[in-house]
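Deliverable D5.2: sample structural annotation.
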Amino acid sequence: VNPAFVDRSNRFTLNPAGTIGALFPVEFGWTPVLGNDLHGAYKFGAWYTNAHTRDVYEDSHGDPAALSDLGYQMQASAYGAYFSLQQQLSHGHGDGPKSGWRAFVNATASDRRTSTVYQTLAVGAIDQGMIPGRPVDELGIGISGLRVNPRAVANETLLYETGLRSRPADHDEYMAELFYAWQPTRWLRIQPEVQWIHHPGAVARNQGSYTLLGAKSSIVF
């Protein structure tokens, strides 16, 4: 763990000075084949770092740092966990583990002492080969949420009320998306989509909900 990695002056430096600790990740995976040849992928993981990380709310005495002259307390460690579940539910008009409906659930949880983004959750489903003669076209739908750490919100509220912050505290973000990916050839993919976003970017000044229409394409050489 080295904050100096993001400095522009170190963009060509493989090992700059300034290491403050180490990051230790661990992951367990399971790839079952259930029922009628339905493939799944289940992953559970966690991470821990012994690098000193700033608390998002307290000073060294346990009081609100926004109202203190002591600065923010430095925690001796930080941690987090996540899981990712993907499971094929049916077979479509194509071949392979992606054919048919497959569902997914992804979630993360981070250290409440040190992380501004506390929890994330995304659930959805994708169908490949729904239409006869279109074996690799995909239809997808999903919803997701991002929760800002309540301790970070409390800190930002105090900073705003005392004039040390120019905007109100950040807010949770929610999003939904529906897309259809049309692949007329092996090398071309065109994907129109519609998105609904509530509080984009989890920023308080982005109040309300927004609906976006878009499209993206990719070419594989």
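Annotation notes: The chain has a mean pLDDT of 92. Residues 58 and 64 are 5 Å apart (CA to CA).
The annotation will be released with the project's public dataset once the embargo ends.
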